[in-house]
Amino acid sequence: MKFGKVEHPETIDFTLPKDHIETAGVLANTIGNQPLSISVGCAKWNRQDLKNFYPRGTKDELVYYSSQFNSIELNATFYRIFPGEQYEKWYDKTPEGFKFFPKISRDISHLRRLNEASLPIVDRYLEVTSNLKEKLGTIFLQMHDNFGPKNWDRVVRFVEYWPKEFPLAMEFRHTDWFNDEKVSQELYHLLQENNIANIVVDTAGRRDMLHMRLTNNEAFVRYVGANHVTDYDRLDDWIEKLDSWKNQGLRNLHFFVHQNMELESPLLSAQFIAKLNKKWKTNLQIPKTLQDSTGKLF
Questions:
Q1: 3.40.50.300, 3.20.20.410, 3.30.360.10, 3.40.50.1970: which CATH number matches 9-290?
Q2: 78 — phi, psi (to 5°)?
Q3: How is the chain split into domains, by residue range?
Q4: What is the mean pLDDT of residues 153-165?
């Protein structure tokens, strides 16, 4: 994930900003005693990208990956709409409780840019994606960084068209979505009124995407490491931020780790899980290949 990459990450202030003033109100509206849902993982299971993660002799990467993590941010679906049979195979290869968080096809987001002609593609995308059944997590839409507020009508039409039975998260990258207060308020309220998660992106070169504005009871966080020693320290800040949100009512955490070069994404994810288990007294599995016989992470 090269978006937001910088040449000298040691010069970046990685301090997490304060919450948006309306985030507390969103979390306070949690209804009932919902169970805590936590999904942590990487963006892909490709062996070439996740070098040294797979034991020698691994025959099926997804089978092994899903035995170690409880979820995957499925970026492959951005590049093509797979046939329904492929989703069925992914479903069958993964254990009970595993979740896929697929990215919406670029045909919809980047090529047709949410125009009217993209809507039939939405139907086709959802038809095959639904084959993941109960293993389907939140689907997410990522817009190009040149898709600005002048396209507001397209965003509204897409949101109104989207079937509400499919959980949705949206990521906007054009700076004016965040830097123009009137625009950002309209966007956040649209998402909130339609129960759509507002994705938070933590990447070195785009600190404005740390808007800290939740629009429903879901923290969908895309954490981008910079292949730098600071990647691990930054996780501590996220543990404290998420603990604060949990104390305010957060019940859904979906945290996915990227790097500019994906060599250490599994290790970063495992470190995050270990820290979260300690803080929240949870029992999420830590990948076996990333710990020694005593359970200590390498």
A1: 3.20.20.410
A2: -75, -35
A3: 9-290
A4: 98
Q: What are phi and psi of 150, to 5 degrees?
A: -60, -15
> How far is 242 from 282, CA to CA, in rounded Å?
14
Q: What is the rounded CA–CA span in Å between residue 77 and residue 100?
A: 11
Contact 140, 96 (CB under 8 A): no
Sign of the CA dihedral with 207 first, then 212, 215, and 218 last: positive
Tokens for 189, please give them. Answer: 């309220």
pLDDT of residue 50: 83
42 φ/ψ sector (left φ>0, alpha ψ -120 to 50, else beta): beta
Do residues 177 and 148 lie in contact, with contact meaning Cβ atoms separated by under 8 Å? yes
For 165, the token pair is 């039975």
Whole-model pTM: value is 0.94
